[in-house]
Amino acid sequence: MSISDGTDIPQAITASPAKESRSWTFTNRDTGQPVSFTCMTGCAFDHAGEARKHIDPSDIWCQTERTDVTLPINENGTPEEFRILGITLNVRPWDEAMAQRLPHASVEVIDDCWIEGLDPDALALVIDTLADRVNVLRDSHAQLVKLRADYQARP
Asked: Is the pTM of this model over 0.85?
């Protein structure tokens, strides 16, 4: 994928079937020049509102679709459904931060609390950390089953 000045922008790899890359044009607000852009493979955004408009290139970004999972979390005395462990793959080709210009992941730990800008190694670290926590939960589950059985077996 490349922009009109010939700069290559790496494409994201998605686990789900990728949507076709779409090409469109916008006008750089600062230069007045048209800029052709091809979305990251799998981009879920409809860029029709940005196409053919005068905008700042740093406002352009692509993101894969997100799927939300919720759990009832008791934050204030009443359980409420909160989104947890959502993930998006993103690219911001003209961002000030160079790391944002490459496809990267953002993990929503819980309802609007994100770990952002994850490269593949950092995402692997998050996955390993969460896997370790799941193992602790599994051990705690086994301990709870035993404790409950022992408790109920008491005279």
From this structure: no
